């Protein structure tokens, strides 16, 4: 906590309200804040005055909290949410909602009753920081913070997708099934890129279902491979894009559902790549990772950038 040193026994007193806004370089005659040091009687110092001697020890009076200190308690509460399942977080919220502050004996009893490994220590550390940063805040404050964090979608773990022979070395699923699952998870938009496309009936069928439920579909395809032909049966509402003439090709493989899930990998949207070839991919379910990826491809589609054009 940031502090300003004053002599022991001194107090800070605000004698005037804060000034209103004025022009740069002055307060336009508005009243200034008066901060005055007031000494409590402490006996005469070595100089014979009522002021403490110059070698008196100093006390620390808290100044306005810095942004760094204000982040400690929220970080600890966020870490608690990451550790516990939602139902257990709700139990902690309920307990916090009934306590008057960090010193409430009921809160101490709740902490002592926790049997999960390390949970009592984690709650104790939260209480210590709560006491230091916001001792006057009731338990309703941390409870609201936990409820807010609990309501947010949690990023899921990355998942491996493979094509070809399956071994027991990694927990993986076939690329064909994962691709369909990602497409099904879209509610508003699908952004799909592939160098080549052929067959892949399950994927094409699932894209058509997405269109029927109102999902916008953008297909970024390499023109030289005639990949667009694989999607000819889809409704006209599907937007197909090719790269503007260039020495390079569109070689990316991506299926992005909305802004929350994306399948990245080596497999094109062909029957062999989705099932028989030796291919490797990963599914990301963390919006913090998926959103900038989607934004990049949306930037590629922007007309002013002259990188992709409608087919």
Please describe what this structure looks like:
There is one protein chain. The chain has about 300 residues and is an alpha/beta fold. It is about 35% helix and about 25% strand. The strands form four sheets. It has a nine-stranded mixed β-sheet, sandwiched between helices. Helix 7 (about 175-185) runs parallel beside helix 8 (about 200-210). The longest helix is centred in the middle third of the chain and has 15 residues, at about 120-135. It is elongated. Mean pLDDT is about 80; it is low at about 1-70.
Specify the structural class: alpha/beta
Main pleated sheet: 9 strands, mixed
Low-pLDDT parts are 1-69
Counted by DSSP, the helix tally is 10
State the end-to-end distance: 60 Å
Q: Please bin the fraction of helical residues.
A: 25-40%
Overall residue-averaged pLDDT value: 82
Q: How much of the sequence is in beta strands?
A: 15-25%
Quaternary status: single chain
Q: Mind telling me the C-alpha Rg?
A: 31 Å
Shape, principal axes of CA atoms: elongated
With strands numbered from the N-terminus, the spatial order across the biggest sheet is 6-5-14-12-11-7-9-10-15
What's the helix-strand series? Answer: EEEEHHHHHHEEHEEHEEEEEHEHE
DSSP strand count: 15
